[in-house]
Amino acid sequence: MHCLWCHDSILVEVSWGNVFMPSRRSPLCSACTNKLQLLDGRRCVRCSRYSNQTVCGDCIWWKDIFQDEDPLAWNYSVYHYNDPMKEMISRWKYRGDYLLGEAFRWPFIDAFKQSFLKWDKAAILVPIPLSVVRHRERGFNQAEMLTAFLDRKSVALLQRKDGEKQSKKSRQDRIFAENPFRMKKTINKPVILVDDIYTTGATLRHAANVLKQQGCPKVCAFTLIRG
User: Fold this and answer.
1) Do the Cβ atoms of 118 and 148 come closer than 8 Å?
2) Rounded to whole angstroms, what are the CA distances from 96 to 45, 135, 168, 196, 219?
3) Closest-CA residue to 192 (of 164, 226, 163, 218)
4) Do residues 27 and 103 lie in contact, with contact meaning Cβ atoms separated by under 8 Å?
5) What does residue 108 show for φ and ψ, rounded to 5 degrees?
6) For residues 40 and 20, what is the distance between their CA atoms, to the nearest angstrom?
7) How far is CA 124 from the centre of its chain?
8) What angle do CA 29, 143, 40 make, to 5 degrees?
9) Nearest to 190 by CA among 160, 161, 159, 222
10) Using an 8 Å Cβ cutoff, are 123 and 189 in contact?
11) Model pTM?
């Protein structure tokens, strides 16, 4: 077995855990696994940003923008966006290394169970969509891949208009851009938006705003990375 990232051989130590649950063996070697930083310690309860405050300044700003009616109730993220993660995400998303996403399967599942298992059982997973052009360029939607890991009911409720890549936009451009989403159909159940990264929070709030306007009672988000 070889590491999906560095391609070095992985020496598997036999234990009761990997004898009975071999599918849970990490597809990364220990050196690559240790480069990725799981979020822990003090974090904002609204967006998962490292913070000594219960609610960080960014989330207070968003609350003011929406006049106390922030459409996104909260976001939970799994990893910190350190330099090794930036390199890994670049290979996965932009250079078409689809299988590399498998490295996130079990940490993503475990974090979801920890954070959402007791949340509203009626909640539906909704992956953040790519535009048709972006999907064609990449060959897959990373948010859909992450959603599939969770083995829970999901619905493609949103469509995205074609436009400039989010990674090319400044923070201000992302925040104040025209809403790029439209609804395919209405929904009256809570929604958990799924995406790869929370950067400014603008994309998730655009999506949440459309959902809330069409009857969704509550929207939160589950993301792989907090930028």
Assistant:
1) no
2) 33, 11, 18, 15, 30
3) 218
4) yes
5) -70, -45
6) 29
7) 15
8) 55
9) 222
10) yes
11) 0.91
In angstroms, the CA 79 to CA 5 distance is 17
The first and second tokens of residue 105, run together, are 């399967």
Q: What is the Cα–Cα distance from 74 to 179, expressed in whole angstroms?
A: 19
pLDDT in tens, 138-190: 999 999 999 999 989 999 999 998 765 655 666 667 677 889 999 999 899 99
How many residues make up the chain in this entry? 227
Q: What is the pLDDT of residues 67-98, one digit of tens each?
A: 989 999 999 999 999 999 999 999 999 999 99
Residue 119, amino acid: W
Q: What is the largest CA-CA distance in the chain?
A: 56
Where do the domains of the chain lie, and which CATH numbers do they carry?
A: 1-35 (no CATH), 37-226 (3.40.50)
